[in-house]
Amino acid sequence: MRALVYKGASASPVIALEERPQPTLQLPTDCIIKMHRTTICGTDLHILHGNVPTCPPGRVLGHEGIGYVEEAGEGVKRFKKGDKVLISCITSCATCIPCRKGMSSHCKTGGWTFGHTNDGTQAEYVRIPHADSSLHPAPKAPEGDRDGKGLVTLSDILPTGLECGVLNGKVQPGCTVAIVGAGPVGLAALMTAQLYSPRMIVMIDRDESRLEVAKKMGATHTVVAGGADVQKKAMALTDDGEGFDTVIEAVGYPATFELCQDLVAVGGTIANVGVHGSKVDLHLEKLWGHNITITTRLVDAAATPMLLKLYEAGKLQTSSLVTHDFAFGDMVKAYDVFGKAAEHGALKLNIEM
Questions:
Q1: Which Gene3D superfamilies does the record cross-reference, listed alphabetically (predicted)?
Q2: Nearest by Cα to 36 from 145, 122, 134
């Protein structure tokens, strides 16, 4: 089979499309999935930049996708050959202590493994451990996403935006929200935050085209980042300049985390979503008495069943997040486009086998 392989952050090229052996069942609870669609995530770029040292050279990348069951192990009860499925970015045994606590991202025999510690979904076939609790039946595509391209956003970015941003950020009716970073995950946080009726959502980003997308998706205000006055402009939108009840960091850079600290109101919450590859400063000399909460989280995908219901009912604008189409044979080109997202106006890519 063909697979997109990480060669190492210092290698040239860093990635390559290669021929690899087709995966086989290793345990009775495995499924083999013939991939139909996959995509690229910002986390994949972090791997390419050397920010995820636990991902070794030679790994098949990718943790998102839609496909069809090619083979099901004897222990798989929920799926059979030919079933169309959504692949969760998180594998869960559903029985270990972290899974039973609702933290399947820390599953003792699963978690974030695809494209990280196990071969991933940017291939023609992928092995799914713990298939019964790591796959979802693919729902019927709604009117607003007739071709079904938007479904791939439910593998990762929709549950990530909701769980790590909105739920950890304690978004609630009538509150004010600032989202720093209008990339795919930031926009997913914007989309899912509206399920909880905040009165204001301010999107902050350097890319004005992404801010235009945010406006169409429901942002009440946008602020262009990059200038010295970005904090002043954002704070001026809040009551008496007091700051935001919830600030969601969806980039993963020291400067953006610092901006979040400048924007949070007394008693507010900073919900970190971004993947950080370097240390950040925490200004406790300013915040020690502000009664704020700072949360971190790796997505557990516990909200995926609920999001699938909303998708099927046409309540999620997932197709708005898919901007480009590629054939799988053009994966290297797709990475180039995704890596230069501002230049190409790229959000999520639909990559078809």
A1: Medium-chain alcohol dehydrogenases, catalytic domain, NAD(P)-binding Rossmann-like Domain
A2: 122
